[in-house]
TrEMBL record:
Taxonomic superkingdom: Bacteria
InterPro entries: FAD-dep_OxRdtase, FAD/NAD-bd_sf
Annotated coiled-coil segments of the chain: none
Domain FAD dependent oxidoreductase: 2-53
Species of the source: Shouchella clausii (Alkalihalobacillus clausii)
Range of residues in the leader sequence: none
Protein name, per record: FAD dependent oxidoreductase domain-containing protein
């Protein structure tokens, strides 16, 4: 696996910090349209992504299901 992270200044400082690490389809989207459904489905896949990242990198991404 290879990953490319693009930031304007330093990693974790620009676009990465703007979202504050929040997956907020329920709090950021108001409509039950196709994009909302896409965002909700995307959120459901983060547990699989967390497990795969942890397995390959030995890094805990600290995914928390509350807030």
């Amino acid at each position: 696996m290879s990953v490319l992270v693009l930031e304007s200044n330093r990693i974790g400082n620009g676009a990465t910090s703007a979202a504050a690490g929040m997956l907020g389809a329920n709090s950021e989207l108001e409509n039950n349209d196709a994009f909302f459904q896409f965002a909700k489905e995307s959120q459901r896949h983060y547990h699989v992504l967390r497990d795969e990242l942890s397995q390959f990198s030995q890094i805990n991404i600290q995914l928390v299901d509350k807030g």
